[in-house]
Amino acid sequence: GENVEQHPSTLSVQEGDSAVIKCTYSDSASNYFPWYKQELGKRPQLIIDIRSNVGEKKDQRIAVTLNKTAKHFSLHITETQPEDSAVYFCAACFGNEKLTFGTGTRLTIIP
Amino acid sequence: SQTIHQWPATLVQPVGSPLSLECTVEGTSNPNLYWYRQAAGRGLQLLFYSVGIGQISSEVPQNLSASRPQDRQFILSSKKLLLSDSGFYLCAWSGQTDRMNTEAFFGQGTRLTVV
């Protein structure tokens, strides 16, 4: 089955700087890669996703890149703000199969 | 629009007692349904996955079971809770478009404390 690894497990960046979180996946057939943000005590919520037919997707300060050959994808947050502090999860799946999540990254934005 | 309901929000149960957590989805049909557990400060551990009524995949050996008696109802159960069953339980659903997964939507979660 699919295995997703996520790094780093914790990340601290100065407000205004960029943050990058990386994930690798094992199943080369995987074709859907969402990213979720979980604030303390709340449910995870989708912030951006990408399918395997594109290499990059951007939504304001958030972007995701996908390298199918290397089987890795990354989340980029630019101009970070205090409200970006949260736990971020990547996930991967093939077709209609189950979503497999990474282990999460705790991002702290330092004012 | 689609919504997901999960209850209760918090639960304190003694060791050895039974458990039943319920999750229902509205506004969609034939959803994929998930139960996840999240230990404090940890990641999302997939417990059960269902693609249809009566179709349950168990991801890890454990003290828990799941059932899907109706298309949009997913129940997580235990006959006898252990201390190690404490955690934050999340139900989720995802749709299907052209046999491709759509994003997963999570319920509010149930914080279970076994004492």
Written description of the protein model:
The complex is a heterodimer of chains A (111) and B (115). With 111 residues, chain A is mainly β. Chain A has no helices and 11 strands. In chain A, the strands form 2 sheets. In chain A, strands 2, 4, 5, 9, 10 and 11 form a 6-stranded mixed sheet that branches. Chain A is globular, with a radius of gyration of 13 Å. Chain B contains no helices and 11 strands. In chain B, strands 2, 4, 5, 6, 9, 10 and 11 form a 7-stranded mixed sheet that branches. Chain B has a 4-stranded antiparallel sheet with strand order 1-3-8-7, with no helix packed on it. At the A-B interface, strand 4, strand 5 and strand 10 of A face strand 4, strand 5, strand 9 and strand 10 of B.
The main pleated sheet of chain B reads as: 7 strands, mixed
Helix content of chain B: under 10%
C-alpha termini separation of chain B: 38 Å
What does the largest sheet of chain A look like?
6 strands, mixed
Q: What is the CA-CA span between the terminal residues of chain A?
A: 41 Å
Low-confidence stretches of chain A: none
Total E-strand runs of chain B? 11
- Tally of separate helices of chain B: 0
Helix content of chain A: under 10%
Q: Tell me the number of helical segments of chain A per DSSP (H or I, 4 or more residues long).
A: 0
Strand content of chain A: over 45%
Number of strands of chain A: 11
SSE sequence of chain B, one letter per element: EEEEEEEEEEE
Given helix and strand content, the structural type of chain A is mainly beta
Shape of chain B: globular
**Oligomeric state:** heterodimer
Biggest interface, CB < 8 A: A-B, 25 and 24 residues
**Category from helices, strands and their pairing of chain B:** mainly beta
> In what range is the share of β-strand residues of chain B?
over 45%
Kindly state the mean pLDDT of chain A as a whole number?
Answer: 94
**Residue-averaged pLDDT of chain B:** 90
